[in-house]
Design brief:
This protein is of the alpha/beta class. The protein contains 11 helices and 5 strands, in the order βαβααααβαβαααβαα. Strands 2-3-1-4-5 form a 5-stranded parallel sheet, sandwiched between helices. The model has no long low-confidence stretch (mean pLDDT 95). Its EC number is 2.7.1.24.
Length: 207
């Protein structure tokens, strides 16, 4: 019943890896989706965000205005820390519930937590394997501009706001190089899946 953390910087191809693992039968828990769920109207998290950052963070229908919140905290380390103190405990609790639910349904399940902020928030959790999606910064910059429509200035700022690649690579048990073709990435994921037990055993032996 391996519990695998999958992380990577923005535009690193992490979602492609998660989809391929799901195709192999892994249960993928998406941290970004959990964030959206714990911030639903009526939730304690959303109430705390409105209280801390102002009612202008809410849309007329009472839902979170993600663009407004993003603009409010982007580049402000103190505000980001405040937001994290509100959101992270709720996400941690909900993710633990999802993991338990998956293993209760199938004790032999492979559960993958797709989590962008692993280094920042959850690196010391009891993962049995840490997989890092990696592509050079210039490749990711190109993806943000060409595929997501960002300006080069905005894309550069987003990349600069994240932890350095070296910080993620230092914690990796397995690195998936996503700089090449989609097929190359999929082949690496397939190889990981086929040798998952071996990788878990190697990490266990090191720790």
């Amino acid at each position: 019943m391996p519990l695998v953390a999958l992380t990577g910087g923005i535009a690193s191809g992490k979602s492609t890896i998660a989809r391929r693992l799901a195709e192999h039968g892994a249960v993928v828990v998406d941290a970004d989706q959990l964030v959206r769920e714990v911030q639903q109207p009526g939730s304690p998290v959303l109430a705390a965000i409105a209280e801390t950052f102002g009612e202008r963070m809410l849309r007329p229908d009472g839902s979170l205005d993600r663009a407004a919140l993003g603009s409010r905290v982007f580049g402000d380390e103190a505000a980001i820390a405040q937001l994290n103190r509100i959101v992270h405990p709720a996400v941690r609790a909900e993710s633990a519930r999802r993991f338990e639910e998956a293993f209760a349904a199938d004790p032999d399940a492979v559960v993958v937590y797709d989590v962008p902020l692993l280094v920042e928030a959850r690196v010391d959790d009891p993962w049995q394997l840490i997989v890092v999606a990696h592509a050079p910064e210039d490749v990711r910059l190109g993806r943000l501009v060409e595929l997501r429509g960002m300006t080069e200035t905005d894309a550069t700022a987003r990349l600069a706001s994240q932890v350095p690649d070296d910080a993620r690579l230092r914690i990796a048990d397995v690195v998936i190089d996503t700089a090449g073709s989609l097929e190359s990435t999929r082949r690496q994921v397939d190889a990981l899946w086929d040798s998952l037990d071996e990788h878990v055993a190697q990490r266990t032996a090191r720790t």
